[in-house]
Amino acid sequence: MNSFMSWVGGKKSLRDKLLIRFPLEYGRYIEAFGGAGWLLFHKPPESFEVFNDMNSNLVNLYRCVREDPRKLIYRLKYMINARDDFCCIVEQHRRGLFARFRDYDRAAKFYYLIQFSYGHKTDQYCCRPVAMWKKFPLIERAAARLQSVAIENRDFESLIKLYDRPDSFFYCDPPYYATEDFYKDVDFTREDHIRLRNTLLECEGKFLVSYNDCPEIRELWNVPGIYIESVTRLNNLAQRYESGAEYHEVFISNYDTSERRNADRQLSLLDDGEEGIYL
């Protein structure tokens, strides 16, 4: 299923590439930088799942979706796609007033900013005919999917240390290097990239990290036993100016990400052979 929202750095276009690189076996699934949750909503549900993000407005939105989507939808139903309304809510957000609102009012205002902002960055009006009502079925489906998901609002280091076990699997999609300022409500510094690496290197479990492909990240993760794989995706924001423009990224892990693909390939060959026998 799709996410009920878009987000800066969302992984919609990479979710299949990521999913096929998951470990073959694990008991706990933890997303340390949840964002739009494209991977969480796309993957099959499991018995132990954790969604985490440091953005308290985002986490409040997720909790409201999970607990009572009808209350959220009721507040969104008559919010108008208009520049004046948008700018008023942006100013409330800029002044830190969201914390004063009740949970569902706060969630509705934040979701409104996400839907009607350019690039979903919550600060610039996108000036396009977005139909809020089309999102309501997605919100209801997301509520059902999130019922068994633990939703956390922690710093990534404390989260990873809390949930780390030999059978844990952490997917991390941190703010990309040199793009940290794109993420509102959260302070993520260049030093935090180093802290993330050091925290993950101490893990008992397995991890998969997605990053922008740049010399700084490759140098940072040039560590024995760490796999770095180059991938590309379409650059959605650049498509209007340069058709086919690609964005280069890397997947970083402490295990061989080809194990699931190799296993699926072997099963496919086995199935083909079995079919041949019966023919």
How are the secondary structure elements laid out?
Elements: H1 15-19, E1 28-31, H2 38-42, E2 49-52, H3 56-67, H4 69-76, H5 83-94, H6 103-116, H7 136-145, E3 149-152, H8 156-163, E4 168-172, H9 190-201, E5 206-212, H10 215-220, E6 227-234, E7 246-253, H11 259-278
Descriptive report:
The protein has helices spanning 15-19, 38-42, 56-67, 69-76, 83-94, 103-116, 136-145, 156-163, 190-201, 215-220, 259-278; strands at 28-31, 49-52, 149-152, 168-172, 206-212, 227-234, 246-253. By secondary structure, the chain is of the alpha/beta class. The chain has 2 domains: 15-54 and 154-279, Rossmann fold, CATH 3.40.50.150; 55-148, Adenine-specific Methyltransferase, Domain 2 (Adenine-specific Methyltransferase, domain 2), CATH 1.10.1020. Strand 4 (168-172), helix 9 and strand 5 (206-212) form a beta-alpha-beta unit. Helix 4 (69-76) packs across helix 6, helix 5 (83-94) crosses helix 6 (103-116) and helix 8 packs parallel to helix 9. The model is unreliable at 274-279 (pLDDT under 50).
